[in-house]
Here is the input.
Amino acid sequence: MILMRSGSRAVVFALLIALALVAVVQWRAAAREARVAETYPPSGQLISHRSRQIHAEVMGDGPDLILIHGASGSLREFTFDLAHRLKDRYRVVLLDRPGLGWTDRASDDVQGLLNRAAESPAEQAAMLQVAADALDVENPIVLGHSFGGAVAMAWALSRPEDTAAVVMVAGVSQPWPGELDWQYRIMDTALGHLMVPPLVAAFAPDPLVRSNVEAIFAPQTMPEGYLEHIGADLTLRRKTFRANAEQINGLRPHVVEMSQRYPSLRMPFEILHGTADEIVPMRIHSEPLARQIPGAVLTRLDGVGHMPQHVVPDDVEAAIDRAAARAGLR
Here is the structure.
């Protein structure tokens, strides 16, 4: 009989406890994700492309208008209100960005696990353009909010002759100084990439989620019913949480490169940005962009934070209508 030493028994016991804890975390994460999928299923259609799916929702009739959401979100960001305000005069095409909502990642999970690769804005735009082509979108106005602004810029750069106009709403367009918040830096490590998403998916408390979303609206107040509509837990799913963090961590080098090509763009640009936006500061992004794009119009929204589409939707609508008029679509 082989007797196990006390030290060895302690190691084995600790290992078993650790494995049990991992199993509990993964079980809780999977259970929460299942509830989210049941509560917030795809609201539109799933367009297949090379074994991947792209989630799109279409409403209304008129000139094509593409709406691209920001980080930690989905197309539900725009179905809360804005899309319904526009569908009487535009064919509104809402798209989940790759890795978020119900759109698959452009890269496979194994690649992401090994090197934490992120889809560039150009890769994201290309994947969304596949869905737009399948929907027979022609010469669209492309609106991007926050991170979606970088994807809108990539869209315009890749299809300058088939993009009627661009509307940037608190959009990311320029390289920024300094580092990202610590939460993203942790996710850029191998241990954080592996461990944090299951813990967040399993245990992130609803009050913490609410406070984080409320901070995005500051200094304004989050609209009643907004959190319940967007389904914030969609972003807390393990794969989605990883994709979101990787895209943010990898974004800066891409906007460094893209920003050098902005002066070549000749389509109408309407740029809206809140002066109180501390998440994507106007002075770093929209003010330089307005100087780079010939004929771009910058509208400064006094005292507005990062969510103009909810805080001052009339201004966003007016900018879209101006873009359509300047492009000869209205």
